[in-house]
Write a structure and sequence with these properties.
alpha+beta, 4-stranded antiparallel sheet, 3 helices, DUF1330, about 110 residues, Alpha-Beta Plaits
């Protein structure tokens, strides 16, 4: 993914209010994401927020080859249709928690 294993990483926090519709959204958008060389990295259902926006109940990373590819994905007409039909009715809050560029294929494990 990307030149020399580089990745653009988007960290997202959501307040999912309708799990079934959100699952349908994920099922529809994942092949579109894959067609851009994108993928989900880590994906968490949050049971308790210690600091920050207490509405957040889902946190995940999206991985792209680069920032320009991320922009093309979010502008894609098929993605926009899936978002309007399924994401918008099932998610009350969507926050970009961070963006970063990673060199190499995987984050280093620390103990």
């Amino acid at each position: 993914m990307g030149a020399e294993g580089r990745k653009h990483v988007l960290l997202m926090g959501l307040q999912v209010t309708d799990e079934a519709t959100y699952a349908s959204y994920r099922a529809r958008m994942t092949p579109i994401l894959s067609s851009y060389g994108g993928a989900f990295g880590h994906d968490f259902v949050v049971s308790r927020v210690l600091k920050g926006d207490e509405r957040i109940n889902r946190v995940f990373t999206l991985l792209f080859p680069d920032h320009a590819t991320q922009e093309r994905f979010f502008a894609d007409a098929q993605y926009r249709a899936a978002r309007a039909e399924l994401f918008e009715p099932s998610v009350a809050t969507a926050l970009v928690l961070g963006e970063l560029e990673l060199a190499g294929s995987e984050p280093e494990e620390r103990r």
